[in-house]
Specification:
- The protein contains 10 helices and 5 strands; from the N terminus they run ααααββαααβααββα.
- The chain is an alpha+beta fold and 175 residues long.
- It folds into 2 domains: 79 residues, Orthogonal Bundle (Arc Repressor Mutant, subunit A), CATH 1.10.10; 70 residues, Winged helix-like DNA-binding domain superfamily/Winged helix DNA-binding domain (Arc Repressor Mutant, subunit A, Orthogonal Bundle).
- The strands form 2 sheets. A 3-stranded antiparallel beta sheet has the order 3-5-4.
- A hairpin with a 2-residue loop joins strand 1 and strand 2.
């Protein structure tokens, strides 16, 4: 999956979960999706609208009520939903799911197949702030999804980050 699309997709907490639920066969109406995801109404509505704006979901014409429309996956949405379903299947634990819903978790894991420097990650993610990247890397390291190593072969030692364990599995699915 393209890193720019991945960054946009994961900028809403429930986007991956909604796509995964649609992929697994949950009807495209709001009530069943809301029940399946466990999201709050406000966060769910924002994520649903975001998926429509990305072109991954569309209203199903002729189905649903005007105030409670039915949604279906677009052609691009079918591919993204398959990836989302694989990612969600890897993370059954609620604590890990909370980390997975954070904006930068999946994009960072997608970029750390090989050891990467902080500056390389920041330049590939473009819109991320230093603080957000640093915080996300610390959380991923604490969860043991990313390993931080100190590279001492250069004149000045520098840290590198690489996906490990479950982070490596998520990287494989996305990459």
């Amino acid at each position: 999956m393209d890193i720019k699309l991945l960054v946009k997709l994961t900028s809403r907490a429930w986007s991956l979960n909604i796509l995964a639920q649609l992929h697994s066969g949950v009807p495209g109406r709001q009530a069943p999706l809301l029940a399946a995801t466990g999201a709050s109404r406000t966060a769910f509505a924002a994520s649903l609208e975001h998926l429509v704006s990305l072109g991954l979901l569309e209203r199903n014409p002729g189905h649903g009520h005007p105030l409670r429309p039915e949604f279906r996956l677009t052609k691009a949405g079918v591919q993204a939903a398959a990836v989302a379903a694989e990612i969600m299947a890897l993370v059954p634990d609620d604590t890990e799911l909370t980390l997975l819903r954070r904006s930068w978790t999946v994009p960072i894991l997608a970029l750390t197949r090989q050891p990467r420097r902080f500056s390389g990650l920041r330049s590939d993610l473009q819109v991320i702030t230093d603080r957000a990247l640093s915080s996300s890397l610390k959380q991923l390291e604490a969860q043991d999804w990313v390993r931080r190593d100190i590279e001492t072969s250069a004149r000045l030692p520098f840290p590198t980050y690489q996906a490990v364990n479950l982070g490596c599995e998520i990287n494989r699915v996305v990459g």
